[in-house]
Amino acid sequence: MEPSASLELAKHILLMFGVILAVGTFSGLIARLARVPDVVVFLLVGMLFGPGVLGLVNIKADSAINQLILIFGSSYILFDGGASIRLKVLKEVWITVVVIATIGVLITGAITGVAAYYFLGVPVIVALLLGAVLASTDPATLVPIFKQIRIKERVAQTVMSESAFNDAMGAILTFTMLGVAMGAGEFSAGDAAADLLKQSLLGILIGGILGYMAAFLIAHEKFGFLAEYAPVVTLMAVIGAYMGADGMHASGFMAVFVFGIMLGNQESLGFKRVHHDEAILEDFIMTTALIMRMFIFILLGAQVDFGLMNQYLLGGAAVVAVFMLIARPATVFLCALPDRRAKWSFKEMLFMCWTRETGVIPGALAGMLVGMNAPGAQIIASVTFIAILMTILIQATTTKWLAKKLDLLAEE
Question: Please, what are the domains in the chain?
Answer without folding.
Answer: 77-405 (1.20.1530.20)
